[in-house]
Specification:
- It is a single chain.
- 72% of the residues lie in helices and 0% in strands.
- The longest helix is centred in the middle third of the chain and has 27 residues.
- It is elongated and about 45 Å long.
- The chain starts with 9 loop residues before the first helix and ends in a 7-residue tail after the last helix.
């Protein structure tokens, strides 16, 4: 079988796959949602380091949405770049 991850040993990958196979679909979904939330927190922390803390929860949301969607789609969906400073 071809490795899934270039930075993970085959033995570690096998352990990961074994653990995933033991989980119920609900457990896998819960874990995926938890990881997604963690990635959003890491992205927000990176933006705060680069741009400074957001002035509001709306600005934080807008920053993350624009980073995920790209500027063009963000403007199409939300109509503005961010809340005024």
């Amino acid at each position: 079988m071809r490795p899934l991850f270039s930075d993970t040993s085959p033995d570690a990958e096998e352990v990961l796959l074994h653990c995933l196979r033991q989980m119920t679909p609900g457990e896998r979904l819960t874990r995926a949602l938890e990881l997604s939330a963690e990635v959003a927190e890491i992205a927000a922390a990176g933006q705060e380091l680069r741009l400074g803390p957001p002035k509001s929860a709306g600005e934080r949301f807008s920053r993350l949405a624009e980073a995920r969607l790209g500027s063009e789609l963000f403007h199409t969906v939300y109509g503005q770049r961010r809340e005024p400073s």
